[in-house]
């Protein structure tokens, strides 16, 4: 397990056939086809490895059913559990595409439109599938061999694989999909070239095909060599290997939000003075940065320091950053008030900031001293995905789509408790009088972010309403509450 307790992300992807169409699991009758031109919910497949034999994989549809083939090559997607007909082997090709072979019958899966079968004895173009990752494209990258995370090293102009805990904005990488290949983009918008240099534009040397080995990822460059960490600092570049071994394997790991907290006295909450938390610092360093990990079930939150310890409630309402494991005393409830937040500890009391800056969970009600400004620091590039797809500029108007299979990267700027959201053209988001979110603002408009669930946030406009995707796929700023259409993966 990685040192910071983050779990590798389950691999989810779309499978594209030789005609450029996606394998689709229909809800009606659990039918299968390869007709869809883009990657939406019905085209997403989750890879599950067999626990005994890591070469064997199962493909689970968005309906929770498994791809299967019988002895006559007839394919279905009705099985609600893993059985012998659901066992497949991935046979990678030199161009990065896969052939899927039934382990039971040794035939290959392929076809087009409604004509899919698993009966081919040899691999032709019709049996090859390209993998399009369907994960949220921002993650931390963990080297399997070194057990270290990648980060942007500004001073050396490279990606170094040397972090025990993926900390700060430099540890966030964006996986960019370009015509069947993938680029690794750093938090300052540069792309990793196979020689280890960072380039401002994508080109042939920054594009990699993804390969899977035992459920881990390998990045193969344009010359057939693989990325691996090199030398004492773990500089990420292509080595000499033309077959991936342990050194060339990586996990994509979920990137939790990292925040700084500003108390009513205008100072940052810090652990610089030791284990007791106090709001007494004027600047942001790793000692003032905390990772928020929101529990999927209770929606309560833990705060972890850069040293790896959790905030915990101890005797007399004192809050200390000294816990090594999650328990009831390390969990806090969040209550949002516009761009401020109040934290309730496990004793039922709110955390307040005393005159000397000390944080104590002793308050029964929320006043000024119980409110903190929370600033999200590790999403300078913002990619938002809702229940129907990504947020993207509309092709022919100033509005935004919220149901696209491709995404646009927006810039998030913190401003006095609120945020400004900017597009690639340098123009800002705003909510117009009709409640539509527009993307061509000359001046920035304030939005507030509420980190409400594990991996999901809500965005509130200046009008106090939430941003939501409507039935037609348009982004609107008129949500009265936090429904599923107003929650965004980030």
TrEMBL record:
Keywords: Actin-binding, Cell projection, Cytoplasm, Cytoskeleton. Pfam families: Fascin (PF06268). Residues 21-131, 140-252, 264-372, 388-490 form the Fascin-like domain. One of its GO terms (biological process) is establishment or maintenance of cell polarity. One of its GO terms (molecular function) is actin filament binding. One of its GO terms (cellular component) is stereocilium. Its main location: other. It is found in: Cell projection, Stereocilium; Cytoplasm, Cytoskeleton. It comes from the Eukaryota. Belongs to the fascin family. This is Fascin. The gene is FSCN2.
